[in-house]
Design goal:
Main location: other
Shape: globular
Structural class: alpha/beta
Subcellular location: Peroxisome
Largest sheet: 8 strands, parallel, barrel
Keywords: Flavoprotein, FMN, Oxidoreductase, Peroxisome
Strand content: 5-15%
Organism: Solanum commersonii (Commerson's wild potato)
Bound molecules: flavin mononucleotide, 2-Ketohexanoic acid
Order of helices and strands: HHHEEEEHEHEHEHHHEEHHEHEHEHEHEH
Strand order of the largest sheet: 4-5-6-7-10-11-12-13
GO molecular function: (S)-2-hydroxy-acid oxidase activity; FMN binding
């Protein structure tokens, strides 16, 4: 590619060049046929913007407030795992990029920098995403560490009782570089499980096999005594061994009992679940299909946003993620009722291409595109963006009838 990247797709190409194939595939991939993966992006293309003209757009204000935090634009960093696979500075670089652009940083439970490192690296407003482990005590400790380190909310990811089937990862037998470990987990294990304090976490692989003895991970197929790594995705195996597939609605009560932080629930795709989430007392909903990495043939996220927004009736803010690659996508999601969007892969592409600078450039690019979209649509503030600014495919179809 000649010159500097001018859009997210060009950053994706730089990331492809920068990363070992195994990691690039992990970051970009979706589940099974990757039908939903394509639809997440394609469905945005089928929504048309209805611009208004002759509005004074000489001043555009993109800022908004998310759970009481003022932010420069309705954009957050989605929690995504293991940023050190993309860049040696990992989540610290991502958080600094977010801080530089004055947007909120979502930190993954499966991060390769600790909550303490991220907290001390910059002043980004940060939310902490959790998976709930079979070992609830471990998850509780992670929540307390996030709380102690000034995180502003807990994002409970609720669409991952098991990891989706990502076939590239299976083929690649995706594994993690031996210099990298889930630092958050390491520190946590040392802190709360004195019995295994003596263990050396030299490599992630040895971490896996050692921790297996504590029955947190079950990386060994007991019938053949072969590690799963010989068979398929190590990341899937990690999730299978640690994530609590019995997690259900009543557990939100448990989460509320261990933290005062507001809880956002991530992974809602239906009005039924949106209503349950409100009944459970969450502070906000993230409409998400996990970047199409979980259930293939789940709906494209943008196609169900409005259903959820209607069910929620303004009781809590509704956030959106999935397939956002352009400022116009952000505009469309807001027009359909989202308070803000979370950006997953696009940020990783920036990180892989250029570290902190790349994260900053990707977010800035999306902000610039969004600002231009607002101006060309006749919207001066995010509150000016209304449902009448877009037409969905269904509405266009009805018009033709
Ligand atoms: C490589 C990768 C890792 C992810 N890891 C996590 C994670 O650790 N926790 C989580 O809740 N979601 C995770 N997600 C899902 C994102 O938070 C988000 O829902 C998704 O990336 C949004 O779609 P997009 O990538 O098209 O923007 C991950 C997504 C990707 C692509
Ligand atoms: C065990 C790590 C899971 C990270 C994740 O959520 C994803 O890859 O989508």
């Amino acid at each position: 590619m000649a010159g500097e990247p001018v859009n997210v797709n060009e950053f994706q190409e730089l990331a492809r060049q920068a990363l070992p194939k195994m990691y690039y595939d992990y970051y970009t991939g979706g589940a099974e046929d990757q039908h939903t993966l394509k639809e997440n992006v394609e469905s945005f293309r089928r929504i048309i913007i209805r611009p208004r003209i002759l509005v004074d757009v000489s001043k555009i204000d993109m800022s908004t407030t998310i759970l009481g935090h003022k932010t420069s634009a309705p954009i957050m960093i989605a929690p995504t795992a293991m940023h050190k696979l993309a860049h040696h500075e990992g989540e610290v670089a991502t958080a600094r990029g977010a801080a530089a652009c004055d947007v909120i940083m979502g930190l993954s439970y499966m991060s390769t920098c600790t909550v303490e490192e991220v907290a001390s690296s910059c002043n980004a407003v940060r939310f902490f995403q959790i998976y709930v482990y079979k070992r609830r005590d471990i998850t509780a400790l992670m929540v307390h560490r996030a709380e102690k380190n000034g995180f502003g909310a807990i994002i409970l990811t609720a669409d991952t009782p098991r990891l989706g089937r990502r076939e590239a990862d299976i083929k690649n037998k995706v594994d993690v570089d031996s210099r990298i470990s889930f630092n958050n987990c390491d520190a946590r294990i040392h802190a709360i499980t004195p019995k295994i304090k003596f263990l050396e976490y030299q490599t992630l692989r040895s971490c896996f096999s050692q921790v297996m003895q504590t029955e947190m991970f079950m990386l060994t197929d007991r019938s053949t005594n072969k590690t799963l790594q010989d068979k398929g995705s190590n990341i899937e195996a990690l999730a299978a061994g640690t994530f609590d597939a019995s997690l259900c609605w009543k557990d939100i009560e448990w989460l509320k009992s261990i933290t005062k932080l507001p809880i956002l629930i991530k992974g809602i795709l239906t009005s039924e679940d949106a209503i349950k989430a409100i009944e459970a007392g969450v502070a906000g909903i993230i409409v998400s299909n996990h970047g199409a990495r979980q259930l293939d043939y789940a709906p494209a996220t943008i196609s169900v946003l409005e259903e959820v927004v209607h069910a929620v009736q303004g009781k809590v803010p509704v956030f959106y993620d999935g397939g956002v690659r352009r400022g116009t996508d952000i505009f469309k999601a807001l027009a359909l009722g989202a308070k803000a969007v979370l950006i997953g892969r696009a940020v990783i592409y920036g990180l892989a291409a250029k570290g902190e600078l790349g994260v900053k450039q990707v977010i800035q690019m999306l902000k610039d595109e969004f600002e231009l979209t607002m101006a060309l649509s006749g919207c001066c503030s995010v509150d000016d963006i209304t449902r009448s600014h877009v037409k969905t495919e269904k509405e266009r179809f009805i018009c033709r009838m």
